[in-house]
Amino acid sequence: MFEQLKLRHVDQSLYKKHLDPLLARINKNSTKDWISHFVLRLAYCRTEDLRRWFLAQEVALLKWRLGHSAAGSTTQALADVLPEAKLMAQKDLEHSNLLPLILASNPNIKIDTKIYQVPFTHALDLVQHRQVLVRRGMAYIPESKLVSLVTARFRTSLSRQLVLLSAVPTTPGLQRTQGFLKNVATVHAIKDQFQADGDSLSDLNANNVPAHIKHMPLCMAQLQIGLQTEKHLKHWGRLQYGLFLKGAGLSLEDALAYFERMFAGKGFSKEYAYSWRHMYGKEGKRANYPPYSCAKVINSNAPNANEHHGCPFKHGTVQEVATLLGRLGVNPQQQKGIMAQQQSHNYQLACVEHFKVTHPNAESSNANVQVDNLGNHPNAWFQASLAYEKATGGGSGENIKGSSTSSALAMTPSGKQHESATSAATSVSP
Ligand code: SF4
Known about the structure:
The chain has helices at 2-7, 15-28, 30-44, 48-67, 73-81, 90-95, 98-105, 124-128, 146-166, 172-184, 218-230, 235-247, 252-262, 268-271, 273-279, 294-299, 312-315, 318-327, 332-343, 347-358, 378-391, 421-426; strands at residues 86-87, 115-119, 133-135, 138-142. It is mainly alpha-helical. The structure holds iron/sulfur cluster (SF4). Iron/sulfur cluster binds next to α11, α16, α17, α20 and α21.
């Protein structure tokens, strides 16, 4: 939820409005809350990225709960996570002459603030930023800084437990749940509204898919470029891109016509047409498969050589992303904010930055661009880009920065520039 609010650029002052109803529901049934926490531990302990994401969400939730709960709950939480913490009596503080020093190191606290004494090794965060007084191995922490102490302690302990959990060998009992746990991390919490018939903005057809690259997030632009270069996509690429285009409004007939032309000489009708009909629910169990969300793309298997699926911000290097963005017309100055987010492992925020630099003033213009789901779903990015173009009158895409470069895009399988790729890409006629 915190990540959703961040991605939707919700002002922090409005968090309460969004979070309170949700937390009230959770608090009504604390047993379910506990169970779901431990299920999520099992689901998110598997890789370092998943652990990092889960830790960030749990710490943000704890901080929020402590900061907005009744007085005394922070002290109770401290007693739970750090029983060594000792509340200093006022007379002891005065007697030891520590009070003036504590007040000097915390100018904003009152003279009668409660002070806790803990071994300094438990308050490294505060010590590192010189926010507390340290004497003879003990840190003296004012009550107002307890939240930071509790969350730091919680983070360390949860992190350690997740690592230990990830090393637990799978037992036959656990094997039953593996499939479910694997999918938890890829489930998109928001209602999936991008079905084949859901997009009224796009006029996608077999002849204009390449021209829509300017409306695609980096993951899909990369697939389009890979397709143009290699005249083929491997299994996961076909699924990721095929379902994206389906959600973007490409009909089955147009999809078959487009990919048959692109897979020229690869026996499309015999080898691949079935999987497209399957994606559209015309074969097999006839399910209407939805396009992949960002969570699914980011947390699914990483691409190997000659594969182009995945999220470039997660699975590519900074250099590869810079090269790709450069080809899409995003200049080095504009790339800085995107790279900063990628390097901080905020892949979805990097994607939102990409949208912002290629769609200037999207939120403040009259474009009525729905930015809510950006960074959550590739199709949301696509639709927001189309809405922006329509609203700003850029019928041919001039308003979208970098759109003029799209025809010159071509990448080798590894993401490096292909000597003759430009001509190959430009020769792909819709
Ligand atoms: Fe694609 Fe989502 Fe990654 Fe953006 S964050 S590149 S939309 S998977």
